[in-house]
Design brief:
- The chain has about 850 residues and is an alpha+beta fold.
- The protein folds into 4 domains: about 10-165, Beta Polymerase, domain 2; about 165-320, Up-down Bundle (Four Helix Bundle (Hemerythrin (Met), subunit A)); about 425-600; about 665-855, Alpha-Beta Plaits (2-Layer Sandwich), CATH 3.30.70.
- The chain contains 39 helices and 17 strands.
- Strands 13, 14, 15, 16 and 17 form a 5-stranded antiparallel sheet that branches.
- Helix 11 (about 230-255) crosses helix 12 and helix 35 runs antiparallel to helix 38.
- It is globular and about 95 Å long.
- Keywords: Hydrolase, Magnesium, Multifunctional enzyme, Nucleotidyltransferase, Repeat, Transferase.
- Its EC number is 2.7.7.59, 3.1.4.-.
- One of its GO terms (molecular function) is phosphoric diester hydrolase activity.
- Its cofactor is Mg(2+).
């Protein structure tokens, strides 16, 4: 069929009408709460605009314009994509229509519509749907906007005939699992995607897609009538769906664009659009996020029930009883199922028995829909008397003492709200956010992550991850003590006051109520109180100082406490954020553990004894490297005790082998190698000392995109700096062996240059997270106990160039850096420098240095 060309239509009025209508709807929504009315009205307005555009482009009557995807449901979020299908008859040649269709799609974009378009014949639609479940899903809710009703009716009938509900169900469930895995299988992300995250809108849409494909129903009311859910569950689903839709719509309006991730930057504005206001210690955003997490949790739980019920109807032959497990439970195809719907009301002990069986029975991989529904309906049963029942207390302790399945059981208890109803203070921190740039999980998820980490130490399959921790826990009597401490270590977050002290009181009460006494109770309470202490010693104090080790040993007291605190500390740091833990923190903690263990075993913290041991080990390594006998003396005679205590034997041997021929060299020596511990580069610098030396090196690392993880600075007796850096590239795909030579050459050139002033530090941009939760910069400068050095502590948001900014101030003030502890905690830094005391005894000068440092680290 030949189609004559047409003139380009005048669309100015159409564009003006659409923008005005949309603006009016969004303005009305700002003061209203009916999100369904908004989304339907936006869809109707968009329909009318597309019809007019279709008419202006004079497309043939044999074609059809079809809404697909979410738009096909007759709903449209404020800035969502508008998914359309231009449907062609099978015998219509596309070539003759291509120009007009392109003009129509271009016109739709010009009107301000975020178009997602496809052009297919009916047969092509069916072929694509058969091969791609995403296409099959988008066509499921197809709706004609304009054009041939006959063509659309033919398509709809052929699509329904081709639909296989069982295959569609299996494909969508697999797709859901993959999507959940992308979000770490948790609805508790601090910046959740309200559409795609577990417990988000997509989970609800997926269920209705499956039930629509199976002809079970298109709404929660129809699923209730069919018996797939109860009336109470239908109400809960409608309520949470309305909240999630409203949240997404308000997020779009606040952002002024399509935005489905509830980022920190927007959380406060969105919360205020809901009417939340800051109150006491709780931010408006915190109240909104807590509401979101409870909704996502309920959706996750109810979706699990529905999917199992749908599966039972689609695959009835595989839903029979596999075996009887107890008077209250049977197994059905790997799921734990109650024998009667009222079992938890009749036998409240069975609630905790369910989770104990989940741990104990091989092959049971979850709770059946019937069991989860019964737990959901038994919430009123889990009251004060239930918590105080001695049998329930015994069952809870037995859950914690099982040899396997503890982490999965407690996570399932949290998902079903049983854990929060048994431990009321745990219920308070479900969905509790942490605004410290350190934790990336809500408090309840962090606690369960810490417990999971401790459990992994004890699992043989994971022994390769942290072999020293696995070795310790294998010899630790009654490891359940650690699990209890993990449950309580952060349980008092968000209550105000010191959460360690408040949590200690909770732990003491728990021990008393659960007949935990004596040494075990004391250890649990002590661990909760001191759970931050070991990381503070390791990361903020000089653990090569025997006096520091002795103070820590006096605090710990026994080897059992030391091992317990070490295991809890490693698990805790690992459970905050993937960015926080690194092998250098691990080495600091292990070094502190071993030094403290020696003191607890009766060894006196004698620096000279430790010095001799390290020197002998280093000499043994040097002999293996064929370094001449006594060649080390030229260098070692110039080094003080502190150097040997700050480096292990392997580093001493490497540095000696590099430098023994260059002790009096007039030119700088730089050597770099892949770090023996972790993905990083170890850089050794040996050069005549000068006030700006440390700053010059920091400037080079900053300009080269190398982040300093650790710096150990020494000054020889004859005025040379012997500095050791651990640096990491900000890019993930760097091969450190490949860049080692480049670093050596460039840094030697930089250090050899004379007369060059220190460059101005680059004011690197803060990360988005740091801008949202800024840390108040803090500087503290005070003399150490012996008065020989000054300790400088700096706390600030991390950013590129920060370390150089600090070192430049010290260089300009002629303050020498004797040692440095660089400590990055997520988006925050806690750096400690040991400064030469000469010239800092004057109070006025100290204040000047602190003032300049505060100015330098401010953004």
């Amino acid at each position: 069929m030949s189609v004559p060309a047409v003139a380009v239509p005048d669309t100015s009025s159409l564009k003006t009408d659409y923008k005005a209508a949309k603006a009016q709807l969004l303005e009305r929504f700002r003061s209203a709460t009916n999100v369904d009315a908004l989304m339907r009205a936006l869809a109707r307005t968009t329909d009318e605009t597309l019809r007019r555009a279709w008419s202006l482009c004079e497309l043939p009557a044999s074609l059809a314009l079809v809404a697909v995807g979410g738009f096909g449901r007759g709903e449209l979020a404020p800035y969502s994509d508008v998914d359309i299908l231009v449907l062609l008859p099978d015998d219509e040649p596309l070539a003759t229509l291509e120009e007009r269709i392109e003009r129509f799609i271009g016109l739709a974009w010009d009107l301000g519509l975020e178009i997602g378009s496809s052009v297919r014949s009916v047969s092509q639609c069916l072929e694509e749907a058969a091969n791609d479940v995403t296409v099959r899903t988008s066509l499921l809710e197809a709706r004609r906007i304009t054009g041939s009703a006959t063509l659309f009716g033919d398509f709809a009938q052929r699509y329904r005939d081709a639909m296989d509900p069982r295959t569609f169900f299996q494909a969508k469930v697999l797709e859901m699992r993959q999507r959940h895995a992308r979000f770490q299988d948790t609805p508790y992300a601090l910046e959740p995607n309200v559409k795609e995250s577990p417990g988000g809108l997509r989970d609800l849409q997926l269920i209705l897609w499956i039930t629509q494909a199976a002809a079970f129903g298109n709404s929660w009311k129809e699923l209730d009538q069919r018996g797939l859910i109860t009336d109470r569950e239908a109400r809960e689903l409608r309520r949470n769906e309305a909240f999630l839709k409203t949240l997404r719509a308000r997020l779009h309006v606040v952002a002024g664009r399509r935005q489905d991730i509830l980022v920190f930057d927007l959380q406060t504005a969105v919360a205020e659009s809901f009417g939340y206001a800051a109150s006491g210690a709780r931010r408006a955003s915190e109240q909104l996020m807590r509401r979101y997490y409870w909704a996502a949790k309920a959706v996750t739980q109810l979706a699990s029930i529905l999917i199992q019920n749908i599966e039972a109807q689609l695959f009835p032959s595989t839903s029979g009883i596999t075996r009887t497990l107890s008077d209250h439970f049977v197994e059905k195809q790997g799921m734990l199922e109650i024998v009667s719907d009222d079992v938890f009301e009749r036998e409240p002990h069975a609630i905790l028995e369910a989770f104990l069986l989940y741990e104990q029975v091989p092959g049971v991989k979850g709770l059946s829909a019937r069991t989860m529904r019964a737990l959901y309906n038994a919430r009123d049963t889990m009251d004060r008397n239930w918590r105080r029942d001695p049998e329930n207390r015994r069952l809870f302790m037995e859950i914690l003492m099982q040899p396997a399945g503890i982490t999965h059981a407690l996570r399932l208890m949290n998902q079903t709200s049983v854990l929060g109803r048994y431990l009321l203070n745990f219920r308070r921190i479900v969905g509790q956010m942490q605004h410290d740039l350190y934790h990336v999980y809500t408090v309840d998820q962090h606690i369960l992550m810490v417990l999971r980490n401790i459990r992994r130490f004890a699992v043989a399959e994971h022994a390769h991850e942290y072999p020293f921790c696995s070795q310790l826990i294998a010899n630790f009597e009654r490891p359940w003590v650690l699990y209890v401490a993990a449950l309580f270590h952060d349980i008092a977050k968000g209550r105000g006051g010191d959460h360690s002290e408040l949590g200690m009181a909770d732990a003491r009460r728990f021990c008393r109520e659960h007949d935990i006494a004596g040494e075990d109770a004391d250890l649990i309470v002590w661990l909760v109180q001191q759970h931050l202490t070991m990381s503070q010693f390791a990361q903020k104090q000089d653990i090569t100082d025997p006096e520091v080790v002795k103070r820590f040993a006096d605090l710990v007291g026994t080897e059992r406490r030391l091992s317990a605190l070490y295991l809890l500390t490693v698990a805790d740091i690992r459970g905050t954020s993937p960015k926080v833990w690194n092998n250098w923190k691990g080495k600091l903690l292990e070094d502190l553990y071993r030094s403290t263990l020696a003191v607890l075993g009766g060894a006196k913290p004698d620096a000279h004894s430790e010095l001799k041991t390290r020197q002998e080990l280093a000499l043994a390594l040097l002999r293996l490297e064929t370094v001449p006998e006594n060649a080390h003396r030229a260098l070692w005679d110039k080094l003080d005790v502190g150097y040997f205590l700050r480096h292990d034997a392997a580093d001493i041997a490497w540095q000696t082998r590099v430098l023994y021929r260059h002790v009096e060299t007039p030119t700088p020596v730089v050597r770099a190698r892949p770090s023996p511990i972790g993905e990083a580069l170890q850089v050794l610098v040996y050069a005549k000392d000068r006030p700006d030396l440390f700053a010059t090196m920091c400037a080079y690392f900053d300009r080269s995109g190398l982040s300093v993880l650790d710096a150990r600075v020494s000054t020889t007796r004859h005025g040379y700096a012997l500095d050791n850096f651990i640096v990491a590239n900000t890019e993930d795909d760097v091969h450190y062996r490949d860049i080692a030579n480049l670093v050596e050459q460039e840094l030697v050139a930089r250090l050899s240059a004379t007369g060059n002033a220190l460059p101005e530090p680059s004011k690197g941009r803060l990360s988005r997270l740091s801008r949202t939760f800024p840390v108040t910069p803090r500087v503290d400068l005070r003399a150490d106990e012996r008065g020989q050095y000054y300790i400088l502590s700096v706390s600030a948001n991390d950013r590129p160039g920060l370390l150089y900014s600090i070192s430049r101030v010290l260089a300009e003030r002629q303050v020498g850096v004797h040692a440095a502890r660089i400590n990055t905690l997520g988006e925050r830094v806690e750096d400690v420098f040991l400064l030469d005391g000469s010239g800092l005894s004057d109070n006025r000068r100290q204040i000047d240095v602190e003032t300049e440092l505060l100015r330098a680290i401010a953004v």
